[in-house]
Structures
1.
Amino acid sequence: MSQAAPQRPRAERTRIAVLEAAEAIFAEKGFAATRLEDVADRVGIRRASIVYYFKDKQELYHAVLAGVFGGLLEKISAALSRPDPLPARIEAGVGAWVDYVGARPSIARLILREVADAAPGHRPAVLEHTRPFFDLIRQQVFERDGGAIARLSPIDPVHLASTIAGATVFFVAAMPALLPDLVLDPVSPAHLAAHREEVLGIVRRLLGTQGPRKTRPARRRASGPEE
Amino acid sequence: MSQAAPQRPRAERTRIAVLEAAEAIFAEKGFAATRLEDVADRVGIRRASIVYYFKDKQELYHAVLAGVFGGLLEKISAALSRPDPLPARIEAGVGAWVDYVGARPSIARLILREVADAAPGHRPAVLEHTRPFFDLIRQQVFERDGGAIARLSPIDPVHLASTIAGATVFFVAAMPALLPDLVLDPVSPAHLAAHREEVLGIVRRLLGTQGPRKTRPARRRASGPEE
DNA sequence: GTCTATAGAGAGATAGAC
DNA sequence: GTCTATCTCTCTATAGAC
């Protein structure tokens, strides 16, 4: 808060500024199209100074991914580790995921790019950062409570995770992209809350924990629009 | 079928071969990282020959998008134009979407990249190809049958479309990417059918046309794992 | 139509001054 | 720590032969 005694030494502040700028530009343009000069411009330094902190472009990129996925793992881990019983914990984890992407939307684009980049024979960079998530889910969802998940639903967890992840990153990144005419910010509290509810509904449906449907009862074909 | 009298002149065959090779490599590597030399190698010609057919890299890229989205529009249009009543027609459209992506999976990666590329101030290339889809949906879903859709559900159609699109492209592109250990081909008939059913379930739930649930009844909290 | 050869721009990496 | 200067490589685009 005081300018006379900065909390962090200059080097660390610069390093963080480089990481933040790189996160934004890698997310926006992708690895190949990002120029280190753009990152430097955004920070207000020269290109060569970036190399003082990060050996090369690859290392900078990996540092960006580590920061983004590290923060995500923290949030999801906290949600899944709570003492609640199973369906509630899964919903808390999904909610944490949606909230994190909303708060740090560049992760949506970074994930979209990593997924698109992955190809047979090309281990995507993101793989180094996803293993902790699989470990976490195995421990907190499958092994805890003596395999209670199996009694809940036979749903394929990979399939479920893929659907949730895809729906959210697409929502956050694609809405402004494909509908630029709409002045619609998917990350605004109202839209994000709506998306979270929608995703949670999908989770409940796929887990079979939907319970009695209150908000939108299924219409029987009594007076429907069918011919 | 006969080699002596090829159906198409050589020029057209080469042009098509270039387009197919470019589709695969743009999908795999993205626009910036794709080298025209890679495309040429795949076709078995030299880089300069590509320029004979396509003025430059941008034009080749747009031609690829036009081909991919043109094919998709054709399939979805056919499904939505059928004489069936509304919920069935929407389901047919969604099914056509899933089947098309399964049959031509490079579209999944191309869409992922286009969405990630879109940024404020940067009209993504894909926008030129998506307008016909909006027109189609407006005509066949919202205006036809005298606005029957409004009686079905208050769901935001953009939201619904985003969820479906995201779930499918993510499923097709991300499963092999993030889980390379699994020998799992998302495009195989069995997995694709499972995904189609899952997506249709989401559609029905979001449209409120789910009807009585047969396959996976909601468990009441009688004997569940809740503590 | 397809090729070879080359021009020219762009951007990452490095060396070394301050 | 941050800078300037430069080296080097890659890749697009073009010109022109066959």
2.
Amino acid sequence: MKAGQTRQRILDTAAAWFRHEGLAFTSMADLAKFIGVKTSSLYYHFESKDSLIEETLRLGIELVHNEVRQAVESLGPGATHRERIRAAILAHLRTILGDNDYSSANIINYSHAPVNVRQKNREVRAAYGRYWASLLEAAQRDGAIAKDMDLSIARMLLIGALNWTVEWYSPKGKTPDEIADQCSRIFFDGVGLGAAPSKAKSAAPKAKSPRGSR
Amino acid sequence: MKAGQTRQRILDTAAAWFRHEGLAFTSMADLAKFIGVKTSSLYYHFESKDSLIEETLRLGIELVHNEVRQAVESLGPGATHRERIRAAILAHLRTILGDNDYSSANIINYSHAPVNVRQKNREVRAAYGRYWASLLEAAQRDGAIAKDMDLSIARMLLIGALNWTVEWYSPKGKTPDEIADQCSRIFFDGVGLGAAPSKAKSAAPKAKSPRGSR
DNA sequence: GTCTATAGATAGATAGAC
DNA sequence: GTCTATCTATCTATAGAC
């Protein structure tokens, strides 16, 4: 088999195993067995397990970055900021919750990767973060986001809400599109009604006294 | 040394290592060395590494659950739903970003834990989720959350935004209180102004054409 | 309760034949 | 490019002395 093909199979298999089993529970022997080669063959294509991890994680970021950018740009120049950010949210969610394993593998494993791997991934991650920052900054500049809103916090909270879906999303539950819709709505308008805060009537029915109920 | 003391030291050390190194990169030998005993001594106090993991993770959930519940209940019955949920957000963030290692260790490692460990933690996790659900349901019942808002999605997105802070929070940056403030504001009112959506003027200055810019 | 000693398994990685 | 064979390290866990 040609080098490029085998190399690609190793990457694809690694992404899938990293996504579903995690970095530590995926051994080189697991990958080799799944692919149908011997462990030593993997080292012809990759210098080490770390380098395999590094490339897999990098491809995951590049994939979601490309998907999000394309989704936003395909809206054309006439789109509103809300539409653009909504498209970014949707593309991000579809990518990390979809069949492609690379992006979800990155999200799930990045913080557990060896330091040298994280270091090599830092720039591609930062580039993706900057893209989101540019979306939010443009929206704030044009008044679609309140002037006194801290964009770095807002961005990290939003990305966090999206990334955490890999922990709870199930194909049997709400679809990525439904989640994206609601996330966009909350992000821009909140769960409230813009009405005056209502008093809590019997808000804590089971609690007899504050503190020490346990 | 008495059994209870050593046992507690093992748990505390494990929580710290699990938080900062991860489950897989924390060996029983690491813990023993740090504590100043031999590896075999750990097995007098814990049946296996898995059982140590299981107890550490369980304590993490119980801790944050207690902290959040106390924070909400200490507000008293006159508090609004916004105040109650804001207090829950703040307590959750303070706990997972603070000095105590148990809760952050849980958040960081739960999805990477062996299946039998996750299974044993399922109920305590579910109980904490139900508490949050009760807060949101009460708010929706009294009109503080829009009737057509799906509470399960809203809850998971909110908890996700909070939990993901362990990935990016730095003591040198924004404080947990500042993050909590902004999170509450976004959750209830969004980043927008409630105004009509504004058109994006020159929203994508660097993009010449949709698709294919790379 | 903690120790010494070690079993038994598995990990990442390399050498050299083909 | 892939193989067989193997090295070395490290891991979880146990047996039995003290």
3.
Amino acid sequence: MNLTERELITKASLLRGITLGELARQYELTVPSNTIKSKGWVGELLELALGATAGNRSVPDFESLGIELKTLPLTAQLQPKESTFVCSAPISNISASDWESSSVCKKLDKVLWVPFEADTSIDISLRRVGNIFLWSPSSQDIQILKRDWEEHMETIALGQIEEIDGRRGEYLQIRPKGYSSKDRTKTFDLDGAPLMSNPRGFYLRTLFTRKILEN
DNA sequence: TATTGATCATGC
DNA sequence: GCATGATCAATA
């Protein structure tokens, strides 16, 4: 049942132009009337359609291929509309790690991008899937991502998590990630003393996914 | 109006 | 609570 990379790409290419409504019908899913209560729906639909197997385990969507699936919502101008969540930021333990062994690096090693129409004027069931493509970061991309990651991790290691905001990082930013701003998770302050803080996640800026899309 | 900060759903 | 999947909405 495990597809080869080539088979996956072929399968993905067949989805070009299909509407979310058509795809949902194939899997007997109901198209949500709005995305506010169904934020992850498109991602889950594409996981089904392409046979991703990871569920909510912390492994790539296509485990045997080491490929991560990411939907990429587009504006009416076919530009990326939103930043892309990568993974949560480790703020609770100072696990001495380097870029190569980081979750961010592993997640972005191979990504199957699924661009799709996300302009709100289009009915959800009529939004079309675009040209799905397999991508890996270029060496220049990696240089910048690695630098961003190292700067964020150093700030966290110094116990300055509260200083971090979404303005930091050229390609990779850190923003809140949780159920609400009241969410708290364990971390530490600049003296190493325990502190409760808002959970955060790593996100790719739209500036970066726009560059990806252009190539 | 682009970006940062806040939020929604589900499974275990 | 944290992993998965993200988009909404206030504000600069």
